[in-house]
Amino acid sequence: MKTQKIALKEKVAYGFGDAASSMFWKIFGMYALFFYTDVLGITAKAAGVMFLIARLWDSFFDVGVGIVADRTKSRWGKYRPYLLWFAIPFAVMGAITFFAPDFGQTAKLVYAYITYSLMMIVYSIINVPYASLLGAISADPNERNTLSSYRMAFAFIGSFVTFMLLQPLIDFFAKTFDTDSLTQTQNAAEATVSTSPIGWVMGVGTIGIICVVLFLICFSWTKERVQQIDKEENVSVKEDLERLFRNAPWWILVATGLAALLFNAIRDGVAIYYFRDYVKINYRMAFTGWDMTTVYFLVGQAANLIGVMVAPSLSAKFGKKRTYMIAILCAGILSVFFYMIPNHVACILGMQFLISLFAGYVLPLLWSMFADIVDHQELLTGRRATGLIFSSSSMSQKLGWALGAGLTGLILGWFGYNEEAVKQGIEVAQNTVFGERLMISIFPAASCLLAFVGMMFYPLTDKRVKEISEELAKKRQS
Predict the structure, then answer these.
(1) Residue 238 contacts by C-beta under 8 Å, 6 or more apart in sequence?
(2) What CATH number was assigned to the domain covering residues 14-223+237-477?
């Protein structure tokens, strides 16, 4: 197969797919715990356990989705049709997940488990094939690196749009449709975002409509080009898994990716509590209505986007592995300093920008390296299990967020967080505030250290990846 230059239109379209995924993923990562504790009304510990159980199970479900996607046959290819089939269920399930029924405590918890688990399943069914599409669009490692950067750039743009729109949308729908919204805005908890149930379901539903449009554009404007070297149509699932488990670089990358995602999950999940309980600035920007937590998130996404845009040139100069290690180490060191800075908005936002800048280098390199793993596996076995391998990358992402979200809720509970006291306007205990400060700084730094150590053992250097690509190209020509 001859290497084709990928047009800008297709690169942008591929990026739209992750913009859609990230719009919901950021809602889950940064707002879901707050929704469950302060809107639905379950405890932080219960929410944390739910996150852990639902996402752990769903992480392994991803592998099944990858296996099925690899064996899918349609006139649109293996992976693209899932964007068409599940775009609307994705949006509908998102709105249902953020609906807060007037049930008792036990019924609320059951509802949360069912809807959150179903949302994660639908997310996997559309996101795993989307991620796998990266390995099917082009066989050129440099093109894939560029596609990965477009993907992550639009992921952060999607997240940025979510942060711009979600809080104002929730507040708007709350004031428009909730008769108690005037009373609610006087509550101390409203220094962050409205706790109106109707505001949340309609705000998330509006974001979902945008996601549907983006997924459909991604489906329409992309194309699968990379084909299997041979025709191993009857390879069993067991054999595919056995081959994957013998792939040492895959194990290293999954572990490293898990640690990197754990870093993001803990920092993002606790931020809304950190600003409300420690920073304590009840201020909303004129015209936009953004509170300081939203501004903090927006600064982080802007810095992430810059990091993503710079990552390809840095990795081309220094190599993917070295760039990854330097970036994750710097993010960890700066996270330690985050704990030491004074409680001043300018210092907090400035440090958030620097940490997020280095974190922005990491994710596009991580996804690009999983595409390299696909080639490595194909050269070793003759089997191009793109969906299976990319589902494992999604699995590491889900595991990282599962552990991060679960630990966030559990640690908040361990440090004495009391959602009922917060609703009554009672000041949060100093021990809880101390825990929130650790969770936004020291704990994420430890995750960075784990990711750095793991990457030290990763064997697929840029030189080796190029050699693999050249050997595969010769086999395809023959």
Answers:
(1) none
(2) 1.20.1250.20
Query: Which of 174, 176, 165, 173 lies closest to 208 in space, CA to CA?
Result: 165
Residue 179: is it exposed, middle or buried by C-beta count within 10 angstroms (0-12/13-18/19+)?
Answer: exposed
Query: What is the C-alpha to C-alpha distance for residues 222 and 11, in angstroms, rounded to an integer?
Result: 8
What are 337's two structure tokens?
């300093």
pLDDT per residue as tens, the chain (478 positions): 445 688 999 999 999 999 999 999 889 878 898 999 989 999 888 988 888 888 777 777 888 888 898 889 899 999 999 999 999 999 999 999 999 998 988 999 999 999 999 999 999 999 989 988 988 898 777 787 788 878 888 988 998 899 889 989 998 999 888 766 544 444 444 446 788 999 999 999 999 999 999 999 999 999 998 765 544 556 677 887 888 888 888 899 988 888 888 898 889 888 888 988 888 876 666 666 677 888 898 899 889 889 888 887 888 888 889 999 999 999 999 999 999 999 999 999 999 999 999 998 887 788 778 878 888 888 888 877 777 777 777 777 777 777 777 788 888 888 887 766 666 566 778 888 899 999 999 999 999 999 999 999 999 888 888 888 888 888 877 6
Q: Taking the CB of residue 234, how many other CB atoms lie within 10 A of it?
A: 6
**Where along the chain do its domains lie?**
14-223+237-477
The CA–CA distances, whole Å, from 111 to 35, 41, 103, 127, 142 equal 13, 12, 9, 24, 46
> How far apart, in whole angstroms, are the C-alpha atoms of residue 13 and residue 219?
8
| H-type alpha helices, 138-180 | 141-177
Q: In one letter, which amino acid is 156? A: F
